[in-house]
Design a protein that fits this description.
The structure is a homotrimer.
Chain A (H helix, E strand, L loop, with lengths): L9 E5 L7 H13 L4 E4 L4 H4 L9 H12 L3 E5 L7 H6 L26 H18 L5 E5 L11 H15 L2 H7 L24 E3 L2 E2 L2 H27 L7 E2 L1 E2 L8 H5 L6 E3 L8 H15 L3 E5 L18 H11 L2 E6 L26 H15 L13 E4 L2 H9 L9 H14 L4 E4 L10 E4 L9 H10 L3 E5 L21 H4 L1 E8 L6 E5 L4 E13 L3 E6 L8 E8 L2 E6 L1 E3 L1 H13 L14 E6 L4 E6 L6 E2 L21 E2 L4 E5 L1
Parallel strand pairs in A: 1-2, 1-11, 2-3, 3-4, 4-7, 8-9, 9-10, 10-11, 12-13, 12-14, 14-15, 15-21
Antiparallel strand pairs in A: 5-6, 16-18, 17-18, 17-19, 18-22, 19-20, 20-21, 23-24, 24-27, 25-26
Helix pairs in contact in A: 5-8, 8-13, 10-14
């Protein structure tokens, strides 16, 4: 079960010696050694340097960098540089630029600026990836390929429009099928020829960036856009594979980033990597959620490709990380499945928009900084693990469904309540498990559910072909399924499952939802559990008719007082909970507690603690990560009294306490 | 006086069987019958279906629909389908699309998407209307023609620019007159040739959508745009009239919608129809205002073309209508002059942006829903009226002026206070009459005032040619005229009436307004009536010199303390009140109460009640509508003790109370 | 030292008789005389009138205006009319219009609408200025040339793009130097040919209007844009000088307007003029700041080219000026260095967007208004000064640095805190001196500092070549230098001064700033002075290592509690204060008080008073201006007991009090 991709924990990050004079390079090597840095991500944005014109390639500088890092025995994460096009390409081929949502064709600027359907871009990106693989693929210190960088954004140019028509035709085959899928009879939008289709931006069906007149075309555009960028990724990957069949290939993802269907992408990646940039006020449960999501993409350890040693620059308020915070954040990352800790970046930029982004070596240029010392301490600790942790698994009996198509469809929906947001709903449910130290996997819409005891699918708005059967099979076999309001409403093209909500989930849940009330932010309803506890509800309130379900809680206000807000249904050997409204935290906890009672789901630690406790296991070992993310100091859980903290070698006692950001790693 | 357009109260709504398989049609007919539905609006968005290409027309499906409805004895409201262009037309003639305020030429998408000055659009819209009239005009069950749908929006394309120059030349005849009207000497904008004129969008004189450097051109653009769309309406109407000289023609309006001068439109319509979509927090007085405005357009009963049975989708928060709310809202609509109750829509959409908009038949597809039951109850009640109510008049001695050109001009004004909004001011005055159950008509700027005892004209900013004389004649003859700050300021081209505010109203009001102070939202002034009552004022404060007027209330704060805030002037046989600032509700009530004392204006019901009470009268009968729109329960007014509620047959007693949304209809 | 540009205090303002019929002109002359108006600014927006087509010029009307004013012995401020292009020029040469930040090429509309790099515009603007000078330059009553009007805005058209490349090439000479300056190796933006450069608007490197991916190019674009408009100014000035070598030339500036580097502009202007438009809630200290800044541009008296007699129109809330407020504001203006008081405008517009902007003659058209009477009173008072005040100097030992390039660079910076605003920071420091009645000069980055005792340079983010040496020399010679967080960070191209913050100021300040924490608006830190006083800090918090500095105050919260927040360093004969965070007002006062103690800086008045007291001195006389800008009444400072108020002739006693807006002028 242990999946080791690397020989050691990669510890390093983005490194751009090309932006610095040569004398700095040797100084870097010296300083990095003091921090146990063993890895560098290079060549992320060097296309213009490597290919100064359409016909010339220049590798001398990269040769020197690779040679230096090789000599120093670094694990080199070699990027392909295709995330920002050279200026000459815009001048010569303006079509390589993107056309934005407003319909404006851009000129040279920024990064992530290639039209994904530009043949010129594709031609030269493929060629560049191939040349890099040819030149460096055989170097054993090239440990990982890093294609492009943070794929994202969109293009609405003419080339994309033409490509979209091809994609649509390929998906629907006939005009009739398309008209039906997009429900184009509505408002008389029926088309008769494929080239009547136009992209759904501000000049087409879009209302604004987050709203659309026809969700069908807008969701399909997102599918097309995600696929188009994925094709670019695959094109580069395949180019690399012509010269290097073994080195793992990745690209760095961005957590819950909306535009790309990461579960689909992960299938094409050898290892997932991602960039973790919480804000000063992001809940730690949300950070944990994104780690679990990234690990779940391949159900395997991942790379932390980027985090800042201390400060960011692009947030509105870029607070410093407090002493110990970066260390705790790094261990949380590892606890949830990371096999690498990499920073953006190793030396802080002298200019341009990221110069206020923290780095291992700050502008002062020395190792005499708090940030460096904290980095070095972590480096030393990580080195002490050797390869013992690598590939260790996170086991979970709880699955939460995370489906990018649902994400898109739910948020495109016009009505009933504009404040309904997909990730926010997912997080409300994840938060419960996080607080209880119960391990969670995220699963896609087409997941194999056999390994799980509980499946939680909040706002499972879009139920696609086969999902009903899969979930019914899961529950039939004894699984517990928890779903909510705004579930089972539409199929894959955003057309409603007629016959009563929650459509394909109706028999499972044993309820019919007749109406969905929407509450404004200043409004709430009251609820009461049949066991007596009271709570509040908001946002959306299903009006539920139990068919085979029993009532768990009722509304006690509004005209639907005394009708169910939460129900429970027996189905086959399993149980289905239907939570018909957004509950306050305590009420949601009550529901989920009850749902868990009849399952085999156990917290990582039996005893109750406000500390975060996570377990990773290899075939040989099991590691507990114990972290305090609260301002208050908390005692060591009794379970661990007498064990040894691997990080300090300290034997833990009844008197051991964890202050904020204190972290322990304990071998089970 | 009774104007009957229909033979029965039309009860039905938008119906799109074309979006559904045939088996659903018969099910619809069965279910609708259970709800006493007798009318359907069809063919609203079917252009693409009816005309699949430039040369083909296809009526088979519509034939079947009309045939089915005819067989079932429906009153068919037949739409012309021109509110959304077919996709092929955009592809073949991109000029049919609109250019938006930002100067972006759109592609295919949305509805209401035709450039009103596109000859291609006009050619095919006219032809379609003609063909429909030719084919269905003789069908006696086609009870009403519904042209286009919710006309609105704007276009700023080159064709519109050229058309605007023609319109402007036609209005002003000479360049000199134009330069003067638009005051183009200001900022040296003098033009010398007509084609130097450019449309006032973001690339021209507009500052942003609601602001402009030259109100003259921007107001004229709105006149031109309203006229242009009205010409399209007339074009279709005339096309219909070639084959059908008798069936009434309408298009559905949108209450206080800003862009179209509905008083001008109404002259071309046989009957007014409109769509009533209050938000969850719209005051009921505002809903009543819009009904009265729509009725006043032709001073005749109107059609409620659309309302939702329960839920909307396009508001931020789409609450359900509570039990009884839709019924009460429907009777309020009838009370204020409607002869039809039509829903959008009869069967809920399976997809696209309105799928969360409520319908008589919901997604569950059955009649077993609260929404359906409430609809059916209403249907039964309405059927019981037969034709007794049809054409009944609402009589009023109070006129409030509502002038779209004022609306535009006032809100384009740069200074003195950006929070000044036309409809908000109108509503503050209307609210008083609503609370007192005093019937109100709205009148246009060129109204015949002879039937009224009181004319209220809040913020009568633009006083056009002839208005001074008309109002003076009205007051001379004994009328009471009430006007406010920001009145009499400009003429029809937004140039100031020089010589002292309120310009042409100065002699009438007997005051000279020397200065207009603007208060920020956090600021207020204090006022005191000469009779002792105290109040507050805000927004704008006129500094008034009474000339012939007497003082009703003075400011008691700011540097203009002890100068008048409200005055009263005798003029001829009549009286003029000038209210120089925005007053708190109680203070405004005091003013209006005093104004009413010397008139013959009576409330519909002598006794005071928080219930809404409205009277409609035919030549034979008089119907009182009594509705409770308050959360609290209120007793039946004593006047009605012993009468019978037509809706339930119940004899009303001293013990009768009305809970929220309870409604009675009582024959006088 | 006294610099008299005029023979009397100019009292008048913008005058547009061309917008009025001739009969009004004579009425104007009569009324203006009653107000002692002696000056008029004419021909500001008359290009379209003067040049009705490409080939015709028409001066008859202007001749008449000049003749009338000459006859009445006015000081004529003659504008060149080039601030708004004629409509025909847009029609014939669309390139004269600007392309905006969004990339939209505009059509005819507004003013300030010329592309600064349009050769067509330049050709005709130069020709117009030349013709005006030829025709009117010899008229002795033409007292001042007023070029264009409120230069501002930007253009991003193709012509500007080409001109920018030339400007850039001229600045950097080689591509290598350019790549280095803009740090284009970052994100691989390296260019190889000059025409790969594109303008940094929304289609290029800009993120939004206030943010950019590459500050280097964006700052250079602002330099280029400021220079380009300045070139247009110089072009017109030089055209005038061909026919008129002596009459002073100005253009009206706009205080802290961001886009133009006014210190650079002032070098080309004979006298500075500016337009003062505070909002209803602008602090008076801020108004004083802008006056001092405008005076400091040339370190000489300036013209108040525009203020409103009472009301504005383009603010959200356009309050009236209260009785006495305009007078007090005018004397404040004179106190800080104005030799003219000019209004916008003399007669209120009949139409277009400024019709609600106040004027000396209001819409009523008579002199019987409060506004007129207050104007007339002021006119009489000013006339009584004769030429005694003209050219009087404001002496100051305190310099505050105000550098437009810093302004741009600081606000383009991505991180650490988006709420950091340049002028806001400057104002926090200025406010201290204002409250203490200590005179302040503003100085540019390349100032001669020899005349000052204190140099305050808040957020001196950009330290350019030579500044370190200049400031060190200043301190070495005994000066006191006060600087703050976010100082010494970058050089002129926004590349960081490596080696530890505050870079070139590190030795001066005697501190090394290791980190910069950013606080969100809801966060604060606590501080404590070594002398015991406590305070709060916010926004940004430097973490400081004193090197040679001593500690003045420490943080007492956060993880950097007990590290310095404020330090003081001895350097040469002088002292340097480093204020590492944004302090509350009292704490900042404590710091500055301490800094002043060891200098020769004295308040204008020894005694403490909440009144504003300003001193202007000629070689013969000294004038104290004493003003009360507080709602509360305050006693006359004892110093002035027994003196005479020049404005009223009143002898001032111990009982004299100043109510709000009361103003005294006292000869020392």
């Amino acid at each position: 079960m242990t999946k080791k991709v690397f020989d050691r924990i990669l510890f390093g990050g983005d490194y751009n010696p090309n932006q610095w004079p040569k004398e700095v390079w040797q100084e870097d090597m010296r300083i990095f050694k003091d921090a146990n840095i063993n890895s560098a991500t290079v060549n992320v944005f060097s296309w213009a340097k490597i290919q100064p014109s359409e016909t010339e390639y220049y590798f001398d500088e990269l040769d020197e960098i690779i040679e230096m890092l090789t000599k120093e025995n670094y694990d080199i994460v070699l990027a392909t540089s295709t995330a920002a096009l050279p200026a000459w390409m815009f001048k010569k081929y303006p079509e390589v630029a993107r056309t934005d949502f407003e319909g404006r064709h851009h000129k040279f600027g920024h990064r992530h600026n290639a039209c994904p359907n530009s043949l010129v871009y594709q031609k030269y990106a493929e060629k560049l990836a191939r040349k890099l693989a040819e030149r460096y693929g055989a170097n054993p210190r090239v440990t990982c390929w890093h294609i492009n960088n943070e794929y994202g954004g969109e293009c609405f140019c003419e080339n994309c429009e033409k490509a979209f028509r091809v994609w649509v035709k390929d998906r629907y085959k006939t005009i009739e099928a398309l008209n039906k899928a997009w429900n184009l009879e509505f408002w008389g939008h029926t088309i008769y020829e494929w080239d009547e289709i136009v992209l759904p931006n501000a000049l087409g069906e879009a209302i604004d960036y987050d709203n659309t007149a026809f969700a069908g075309i807008s969701i399909d555009y997102r599918r097309f856009n995600s696929d188009g960028m994925l094709n670019n990724f695959k094109m580069e990957r395949d180019a690399i594979r012509r010269h290097d069949q073994t080195t793992p290939v990745t690209t760095n993802l961005m957590g819950t980033y909306k535009n790309l269907d990461y579960f689909k992408w992960a299938k094409e990646m050898d290892i997932v990597s991602w960039d973790n940039y919480p804000s000063y006020n992001t809940p730690w449960s949300y950070v944990a959620l994104t780690h679990d999501l990234m690990r779940s993409l391949k159900k395997a350890p991942f790379m932390l490709m980027e985090q800042t040693p201390s400060q960011q620059n692009w947030q509105p308020y870029n607070s410093l990380k407090k002493p110990g915070q970066m260390r705790a954040q790094s261990y949380q990352t590892i606890a949830h499945g990371a096999d690498t800790i990499q920073y953006f970046q190793l030396r802080r930029s002298v200019g341009a928009c990221e110069k206020f982004h923290g780095a291992v070596i700050e502008h002062v240029g020395t190792e005499d900084t708090r940030v460096f010392r904290e980095t070095a301490q972590l480096g030393e600790e990580l080195a002490s693990f050797g390869d013992s942790l690598l590939g260790a698994a996170n086991h979970s009996r709880v699955a939460i469904m995370f489906d990018w198509e649902n994400y898109w469809a739910l948020e495109y929906t016009s009505g009933p309540n504009k404040d309904l947001k997909y990730v926010d709903q997912i997080h409300q449910y994840y938060r419960y498990f996080y607080d209880k130290n119960i391990a969670v996997d995220f699963v896609p819409a087409d997941a194999d559910l056999s390994g799980y005891s509980i499946l939680v699918a909040p706002v499972l708005y879009m139920v696609k072909e086969g999902m009903k059967e899969a979930i019914e099979a899961f529950v039939n076999a004894g699984g517990t399924f928890i779903t909510t309001f705004m579930s089972g409403i539409v199929g894959e093209s955003d057309n409603v499952h007629l016959g009563g909500y929650p459509g394909p989930l109706r028999e499972l849940a044993g309820v019919w939802v007749e109406e969905i009330d929407a509450l404004a932010p200043e409004q709430t309803n009251q609820i009461q559990f049949v066991t007596g506890e009271e709570g509040t509800s908001r946002l959306l309130c299903d009006i539920i008719h139990p068919e085979t379900a029993e009532v768990i809680a009722n509304y006690t206000s509004n005209f639907y007082a005394n009708t169910p807000a939460v129900t429970k249904n027996s189905f086959g050997k399993g149980t289905v909970y239907y939570i018909g409204t957004e509950l306050d935290t305590s009420s949601l906890d009550l529901c989920l507690e009850q749902a868990l009672e009849t399952t085999d789901v156990q917290p990582t630690l039996e005893e109750t603690t406000p500390l975060e406790v996570v377990l990773r296991e290899t075939e040989e070992d099991a590691f507990y990560f114990v972290m305090n993310f609260h301002a208050e100091t908390h005692p060591l859980p009794k379970t661990f009294v007498g064990t040894t903290d691997l990080l300090t070698g300290e034997v833990l006692s009844e008197k051991t306490v964890l202050h904020m950001y204190d972290t322990l790693v304990i071998k089970a």
